[in-house]
Amino acid sequence: MAKNTDKTEDRIVAVEEAFSKTEQWIEKNQRIIIIVVSVVIVVVLGFFGFKRFYLAPKEKEAQAQMFMAEKYFEMDSISKALNGDGNYPGFLTIIQDYGITQSANLAHYYAGICYLKKSEYQKAIDQLEDFKGKDEVVGPMATGAIGDCYMELNQADKAAEYYSKAAAQRKNDFTTPMLLMKAGYAYEIAGKKDEALKAYQQIKSDFSRSFEGRDIDKYISKLSPVKK
């Protein structure tokens, strides 16, 4: 019993010594601690203040300014969508003036598609690569559009790479089978029949009910080795 009591007392002494050392360290470094805590508070408050009082109004303004550019895009008036109409800015101005907003990010996608339609493929690639899309549809479509650009530039191997990347980006029943189909075709053009066959087989196994899945057997049979 005495030994247990001694051990308990030793532990209490050790804890007290630890607390004492901690108090001494805090007293010694009190000024530094106050500065660090103050900086953290300022940064946190500054971040939330920036989002609320600067970024949120800027985002609202960008959305209002981009409204007409989106309308022109829907009407296939590509030049006005890109460069504006003299009263409202186009996507390129939105990108320049509202660069940190989500609207400017989306404008990169729109601008990329506009350049693709204008057959200015390298400009389209540059804009689409700047777009950061995390949603189910637009993100894969943007990556796939880069593949379209490379196909137009007669770089089927590169196109297939982007189509495959887009297909894996966000799997869904709409974009994934379509992009896999494009990947398969691009691989065929590039002479990579094994890779093309894999893309077609994935459509059959995972998306057999999709539009692309209806006729996928003929693409698979065309590339499948003939059994003797």
Classified by CATH, the class of the domain at 133-228 is Mainly Alpha
| DSSP summary, beta strand count | 0
- The assigned structural class equals mainly alpha
Architecture of the domain at 133-228, according to CATH? Alpha Horseshoe
Q: How large is the radius of gyration?
A: 29 Å
Largest β sheet strand count, sense and barrel closure: none
* Residue share in β-strands: under 5%
Overall average residue pLDDT: 83
Q: What is the CA–CA distance across the termini? A: 88 Å
Number of helices: 11
Overall 3D form: flat
What would the CATH topology of the domain at 133-228 be?
Answer: Serine Threonine Protein Phosphatase 5, Tetratricopeptide repeat
Order of helices and strands: HHHHHHHHHHH
- How much helical structure, as a percent, in the residues? over 70%
State the CATH superfamily name of the domain at 133-228: Tetratricopeptide repeat domain
Low-confidence segments, ≥5 residues, pLDDT <50?
Answer: 39-55
